[in-house]
Specification:
12 helices; Arc Repressor Mutant, subunit A; 270 residues; 2 domains
């Protein structure tokens, strides 16, 4: 799972990101932004699992951001941080599906515990959804087989829904569409008529990696190859591999290669 920290105080956001053992909370990726506007841009770029969000922010507060998240049918969990114990805030947060509300300043252990609880709820909810979706899929396949058997006709799609075949189809689709900024788990699932959670679990079982991480890895490999040629700038490379926001590309590239795009090009020249 990943976590998006939203706080208009950059030092606070960066400190939370760096000082808490997020892996112990079940979090693999942590991003930090400093406004609701940037949070929306990040969520358009990738699916965010959990928000760790300050309520009191200028321009657009945390409640307004969560309302936007719900209006866009995102199932993200949210943990609010606030310096003021306000009943109105709490009531609105609960109405928007936020079950955790941490009063700051708070020990890191309390924040980590709230995020861990959110991760557990989200995992359970997605598992229930996946089981339901898989049950419906299995039922459809069973009914389809019965109809074909009654018609005594061969199944033209025989083997097409085997896990290994589906995983290969997902991989091929990803590699063909790396330049698209719309490429993500949800768009792939919609194209292949599966639930995102089920498709991601199937792919990870077959390939040993989540769909989201596979997309990132392949985009970074492509970006590295492009930068080595020197034909495109880092900004142009970011757009070429599906990133609308250069900052997101820069951060992901640095994390993947351990250096900035400029440092990577210089290293390759040597």
């Amino acid at each position: 799972m990943n976590l998006l920290i939203i706080n208009d105080e950059q030092l606070t956001a960066d400190t939370l990101r760096e000082d808490i053992d997020w892996q112990a909370c079940g979090i693999a990726e942590v991003y930090a932004v400093y406004s609701a506007k940037n949070a929306k841009a990040c969520m358009r770029e990738r699916k965010v699992d959990i928000l760790l969000c300050d309520i009191e922010m200028p321009e657009e507060n945390g409640l307004e951001l969560l309302r936007w998240v719900r209006e866009n049918a995102e199932d993200s969990e949210c943990v609010f941080l606030t310096c003021h114990a306000s009943f109105d805030y709490a009531r609105e947060a609960i109405r928007l599906g936020c079950q955790d509300y941490v009063l700051m300043p708070a020990p890191y252990e309390d924040i980590a515990a709230a995020v861990s609880a959110a991760a557990a709820r989200l995992k359970k909810r997605r598992e229930q959804t996946a089981f339901r979706e898989y049950g419906e899929f299995a039922l459809r396949q069973s009914l389809k087989g019965e109809r074909e058997e009654r018609d005594d006709a061969p199944d033209p799609g025989d083997g097409a829904n085997r896990p290994e075949v589906l995983a290969e189809q997902v991989e091929e689709t990803i590699l063909e569409n790396l330049r698209s900024s719309e490429l993500n788990v949800d768009s792939l699932a919609a194209r292949m008529h599966f639930h995102p959670v089920y498709l991601n679990r199937l792919f990870k079982k077959e390939k040993g990696i989540s769909i989201g991480q596979f997309i990132i890895n392949e985009r970074m490999k492509l970006a590295g190859s492009i930068l080595e040629t020197g034909t495109l700038s880092a900004q142009e490379t970011a757009e070429h591999v599906g990133y609308n926001h250069y900052t997101n590309f820069y951060n992901m590239f640095k994390k993947y290669y351990g250096m900035t795009p400029a440092q990577y090009q210089e290293a390759r020249r040597r």
